[in-house]
């Protein structure tokens, strides 16, 4: 699949890049390049991408898509993210409520090797979104070997544990930091869709 991206057209499009900035949580798992966004809601959506097993990588796209129609002043449009999955490449445009954009945008995106995906934040699973945002705040936390062994030993014996039981097994580090980091690294699994992560959340070893 193509991964190239059109450059911005004209001074107006280039000036648009100035609004891109970092938003919390600041660390990422699958981002290529600088994690700079044009809104907090785009950053929030990117948390879902980091925890989606089908997503290989994603990157922010401050460059504009240009409609090379031969006009003296080409038309351009900004989307938010370029996403590579195991089956396709897509350009994601984040909207707060409704979706829109120029009629030529899907065609130009396809010519570039992408599928255009408009996303309304109100249509997303809010439970999964919140859980993803909460976990991503722990990216970069270290897991001591002793605590990892204790958690695995307890899970091997019991099969599953509640989050509270996992936290009580931690001895060498900050308990929530360790459990969240093990989830983010694919060592442990929790259900991100059923309910907000809490004391009774079931924790298990990740499937091999």
Provide tags for this entry:
208 residues, alpha+beta, Arc Repressor Mutant, subunit A, 2 domains, 32% helix, elongated
Structure report:
This protein is α+β, with helices and mostly antiparallel strands and 208 residues long. The protein has two domains: 10-124, no CATH class; 138-205, Arc Repressor Mutant, subunit A. Helix content is 32%, strand content 18%. It contains seven helices and nine strands. A four-stranded mixed β-sheet has the order 1-4-5-6. Strands 7-9-8 form a three-stranded antiparallel β-sheet. A hairpin with a 7-residue loop joins strand 2 (65-67) and strand 3. Helix 2 (40-50) packs across helix 4. It is elongated. Residues 1-15 have low confidence and may be disordered.
């Amino acid at each position: 699949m193509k991964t190239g991206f059109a450059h911005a057209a004209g001074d107006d499009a280039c000036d648009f890049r100035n609004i891109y900035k970092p938003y919390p949580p600041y660390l990422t798992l699958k981002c290529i390049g600088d994690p700079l966004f044009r809104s907090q809601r785009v950053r929030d959506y990117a948390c879902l991408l980091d925890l989606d097993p089908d997503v290989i990588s994603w990157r922010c796209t401050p460059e504009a898509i240009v409609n090379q129609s031969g006009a003296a002043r080409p038309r351009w449009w900004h989307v938010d993210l370029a996403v590579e999955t195991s089956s396709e490449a897509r350009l994601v445009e984040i909207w707060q409520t409704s979706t829109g954009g120029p009629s030529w945008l899907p065609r130009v995106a396809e010519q570039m090797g992408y599928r255009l995906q408009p996303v309304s934040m109100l249509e997303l699973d809010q439970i999964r979104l919140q859980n993803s945002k909460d976990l991503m705040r722990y990216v970069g936390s270290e897991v001591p070997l002793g605590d990892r062994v204790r958690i695995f030993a307890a899970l091997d014996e019991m099969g599953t544990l509640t989050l509270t039981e996992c936290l009580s097994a931690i001895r060498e580090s900050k308990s929530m930091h360790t459990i969240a980091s093990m989830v983010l690294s694919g060592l442990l699994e929790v259900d991100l869709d059923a309910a907000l992560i809490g004391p009774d959340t079931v924790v298990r070893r990740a499937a091999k």
